[in-house]
Amino acid sequence: xxTTRTYELLKNPxxxxxxxxxxxxxxxGEPLLTAGTPIHSGELSLLAAAGIERVRVYPAxxxxxxxxxxxxxxxxxxxxxxxxxxxxxxxLSARLREEGCTAIPLGIARDTAxxxxxxxxxxxxxxxxxxxxxxxxxxxxxxxxTLGRHGFELGFWKAAIKPGKPVLFGTACGTPVFxxxxxxxxxxxxxxxxxxxxxxxxxxxxxxxxxRMKVTLxxxxxxxxxxxxxxxxxLEDQDGRYLFVPSPRQGSGQNRSIQGAQALLxxxxxxxxxxxxxxxxxxxxxxxxxxxx
Length: 293
What we know:
Elements: H1 41-49, E1 62-68, E2 72-73, E3 84-85, H2 87-98, E4 102-109, H3 113-123, E5 128-132, H4 143-147, E6 153-157, E7 161-162, E8 168-172, E9 175-180, H5 184-202, E10 212-217, E11 228-238, E12 241-246, E13 263-267, E14 279-284
Parallel strand pairs: 1-4, 1-5, 2-3, 5-9, 7-11, 10-12
Antiparallel strand pairs: 6-8, 8-9, 10-14, 11-12, 11-13, 13-14
């Protein structure tokens, strides 16, 4: 037995509503992704929907990391008098993983040309070599001299920044080489300013530079430095407007400078102090909640 029911349409249907038409998403000849597009889940889904099994991609950069200095010991070893734990390796290897790179640990090279030379030779087999320490002008700073044994061509040495002045860049045997300062905050700053853009170029990114965002300075910044300063800080949401709060410790030798930092604020050399409440532009290291790259 069938029951008859009456339905009333509240509005007139339109022709074509709720119909998925052939070719509405994928049109012949239309590019799906342009060169330099990072492949995330949405891009993978689109490629799969088009029946594309393989695409040409840039391989993840293989980056050799060399720490230098008689004063360094590995994590887990007890430092002796005048020694410290090699924290820079763990900083850099973590940042490399976050950037989609593979870190190749070379260990600690002692302050001798022979030990440095052996480890540098191994590092030049990678796509890029990073060393920390030994790039200044001290009696035990042998990195640049030892690189010369391997046909090193200097790009630049020393930048007018604080922290990070003695940063070194060049190529050896066709491999890009960055020599970063040994102080942790200086090593971290020069990685963000110089190494990260280079890695993004190697990985095929169209825009390798750090994203920028305008924010409000939460507290006064003193000026008067000859070199450009980079200030570590965090971002706090205040009624939809982000505040930049400088880290309380900015010393180049302090890991506390880096911990929790989301942005770097460049302050030009020779500039007077910047008052709290001023709009400034920061370099983003990690996006704040609700924002995307």
